[in-house]
Amino acid sequence: MAELLSGKILSEQLTLKQKEKVAELKEKGIVPGLAVVFVGEDPASQIYVRNKGIACETIGIYSRTIRLDADCTQEKLTETIEDLNKDKQIHGILVQLPLPKHLDEQKTLATILPQKDVDGFHLINAGKLFTNQKGIVPCTPKGILFMLKDAGIDLAGKEAVIIGRSNIVGKPAAMLLLNENCTVTICHSKTKDLKEHTKRADILVAAIGKAKFVTADMVKPGSVVIDVGINRVDGKVVGDVDFEAVEKIASYITPVPGGVGKMTISMLMENTLEAACAQAL
Ligand code: NAD
């Protein structure tokens, strides 16, 4: 039976440390600040934005949510970000994705100052990750690596297979694991014989967005299985991995909920604290 990699427990431990860090910074007169820009009314995004606000409040980070109408212009969005770039109270800026279709995601992300880009989606930060330089790393992949390291899982030389090639999860996760000396394969919707690849994985990361997509016959016995998926099925949140079957053969597995999702928020707090220190100290 696989050992559970609990994002819930780990994020609770991190929250305590982050609270201490915020208190330390406040003694030096620095109040870390995070701004979340939210365009439109997407219900899932509303939940994510609310959870980010709660996390900030819990550890003492100043948070501001800027809500813009669904029909907001690109100019208005750019102007809002530029104001936040100049705002000394704000050390981290996050634009909640996805944006309404008429807005240009890449142009929007490029407007955020790289040192305030706590999601790590700006081209400068993506480039730094690509070239193995210190920059701001996207929260979900950063959380995955944190969990693997915390469990003492040796990464060098391991076969890591990632299913999913998105800019926010799959690709940065692949780059982080490559920088940790894994041999990395990225699979996607056009991959032939997916199972041929996944069966080789010592570390399998599932970031697809399809409930219970990864079945036990796709998994190498004794491997580490990281489930990034968040899918709503009959009112319940389930991952991309058939947890009940896969936990019987994996050595480690992340649950959904209570796994990677918790770490994503923790890493957002971590990135905000790091950004505040870099800008203020
Ligand atoms: P995405 O839709 O941008 O990417 C999905 C990827 O899956 C694509 O690259 C696609 O090629 C691949 N794919 C689709 N069908 C496939 C198939 N049949 N075989 C192989 N690959 C296939 O999604 P994303 O933004 O990367 O998110 C993936 C999942 O992770 C979603 O469920 C999302 O909700 C979740 N997510 C969770 C967190 C978290 O904090 N836990 C953060 C971000 C995303």
Description:
- By secondary structure, the protein is of the alpha/beta class.
- It folds into two domains: 29-116, Rossmann fold; 139-261, Rossmann fold (3-Layer(aba) Sandwich).
- The chain is 42% helix and 16% strand.
- It binds nicotinamide-adenine-dinucleotide.
- Residues 140, 163-166, 168-170, 187-189, 191, 194, 207-209, 228-231, 260-261, 264 line the site of nicotinamide-adenine-dinucleotide (NAD).
Helix content: 40-55%
* CATH fold title of the largest domain: Rossmann fold
Q: What is the chain-wise order of helices and strands?
A: EHEHEHEHHHEHEHEEEEHEH
Can you list the strand order of the major beta sheet? 1-11-8-7-5-6
Radius of gyration: 19 Å
Give the integer mean of the pLDDT values. 97
Can you tell me the overall shape?
Answer: globular
Instruction: State the CATH class of the largest domain.
Output: Alpha Beta
Any descriptors?
globular, Rossmann fold, 16% strand, alpha/beta, binds nicotinamide-adenine-dinucleotide, 281 residues, three-stranded parallel beta sheet, six-stranded parallel beta sheet
Describe the SSE topology:
Blueprint: E1 3-4, H1 7-27, E2 33-39, H2 43-59, E3 62-68, H3 74-86, E4 92-95, H4 105-111, H5 123-130, H6 139-150, E5 159-163, H7 170-179, E6 183-187, H8 194-198, E7 203-206, E8 224-227, E9 231-233, E10 236-238, H9 243-246, E11 252-253, H10 260-280
Parallel strand pairs: 1-11, 2-3, 2-4, 5-6, 5-7, 7-8, 8-11
Antiparallel strand pairs: 9-10
The protein binds nicotinamide-adenine-dinucleotide (NAD).
Residues 140, 163-166, 168-170, 187-189, 191, 194, 207-209, 228-231, 260-261, 264 line the site of nicotinamide-adenine-dinucleotide.
